[in-house]
């Protein structure tokens, strides 16, 4: 068992990001055995859950004339417009049935503000509005994080980079992640994480 100062953060292992989902990541469900095994090794586990209202501004369907995976300028910067996914209360928003949620200490829901997306587990996409996760981890005495989940190049990478900026010792387990790789986003994310001193194993 890892020290109490170490926590596992499992990002968005939900039906809509797994095969058959609205925003499926290739082989997204293949990581679940590895994630479940890792949970057994950590005293503290946090699960995050994308949790969007149907009118969310990041959904292409809410902007007539746009297409999924195009970009739009929002007040907080460029935003990818996604297919509607992880809508509050939907089957797609539920955790994959294979994920052992019983081992989680905290479930953090993000992206519920219709006006702004939230890739990171720590901040909304304005890079300023906190989710409260840092405070939870600090009060639990956590200083080191291992990140896994979906998708490597978006929500996992944003979370890892923010964690590093906040002073946590961060490890990314690539065997327990899968990527979307949208227009080279995977290479960009890996380069940024390496530059930030994140340990990639």
Can you put this structure into words, describing what you see?
- Helices cover 20% and strands 22% of the residues.
- It is built from four helices and eight strands, in the order E-H-E-E-E-E-H-E-H-E-H-E.
- Strands 5-2-1-6-7-8 form a six-stranded parallel sheet. It has a two-stranded antiparallel ribbon with strand order 3-4.
- It starts with 5 loop residues before the first strand and ends with a strand.
- It has 201 residues and is of the alpha/beta class.
- Strand 1, helix 1 and strand 2 form a beta-alpha-beta unit.
- The protein is globular.
- Helix 3 (152-165) runs parallel beside helix 4 (185-195).
Summarize the structure.
By secondary structure, the protein is α/β, with parallel strands linked by helices.
Structure class: alpha/beta
Distance between the termini: 19 Å
Query: Judging from the principal axes of the Cα atoms, what is the shape?
Result: globular
Q: What is the rounded Rg?
A: 16 Å
Task: Please mark out the parts with pLDDT under 50 across 5 or more consecutive residues, or reply none.
Answer: none
User: What proportion of the residues is helical, as a percent range?
Assistant: 10-25%
Mean pLDDT over the residues: 97
Tell me about the biggest sheet?
A: 6 strands, parallel
Question: Strand percentage, roughly?
Answer: 15-25%
Strand order of the largest sheet: 5-2-1-6-7-8
Number of strands: 8
Oligomeric state, counting identical vs distinct chains: single chain
Topology of this structure?
Elements: E1 6-11, H1 32-39, E2 44-50, E3 71-74, E4 77-80, E5 106-110, H2 133-139, E6 144-150, H3 152-165, E7 169-178, H4 185-195, E8 199-200
Parallel strand pairs: 1-2, 1-6, 2-5, 6-7, 7-8
Antiparallel strand pairs: 3-4
Helix pairs in contact: 3-4
